[in-house]
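Dear colleagues,

I hope this message finds you well. In preparation for our joint manuscript, I am sending the Cardiotrophin-like cytokine factor 1 (Jacana jacana) sequence together with its predicted structure, so that both groups work from identical material. I would be grateful if you could confirm receipt.
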Amino acid sequence: GDSWGIFTFLCAALCNLPALPALNCTEELGAGQSIQKTYDLTRYLEHQLRTLAGTYLNYLGPPFNEPDFNPPRLARAERVPSATVDLDLWRGLTDNARLAANYRAYSRLLCYLRALDGQAGTAELRHRLGHFCSSLQGLVLSIAGVMSSLGYPLPAGPAGPPAGPPGTPVAPNDFLKKMDDFWLLKELQTWLWRSAKDFNRLKKKVPPAVVTLRLEARGF
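The corresponding structure tokens are as follows:
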């Protein structure tokens, strides 16, 4: 009699387990995996860019490949999305706003980099730029996946660089063109550095499903 009573109690308990916690765990696991993948890709791009930037700056020649070269940012470079935002201001944004800013910035930076790919003077440099562009395209898609997994819409509007007036040359002279390339790489390095920190913080906000399940089982 006691055994039958225990069996009946266990069956009733299993039948009455709520379905919602399991659904929540599945959603958080998907978001967590997407965030971790994006963080790993950001760190990989950081490493990849260090080699690419050195090779490209050597291609540009002096003074761009000199370690102490730190020119002021020209008005022309404002077309490249800047990552030089106050850190406290940046951290004060919502996760949605930071993700949207990252998505827009990398979409535009990718357009500029593809233009460099077509202008590079050596086959090796074109190959490296092409490989990096493919990786950066993967980052844009990965950020879109994170936003989707968290229920955020993708930013509206054009993702490419702003177009200049018809017939306007890309740069009035070779030096200013090289300056544009220099600032593109410099800003990209800063964006990747900050994005790695963004995704590292974001993944800490999304607990693994197994941890969530244990907390729910204990009644927290």
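For the figure legend, we might mention the following. The radius of gyration is 24 Å. Residues 30-157+172-204 form a domain with the Growth Hormone; Chain: A; fold (CATH 1.20.1250.10).

With kind regards,
E.M.
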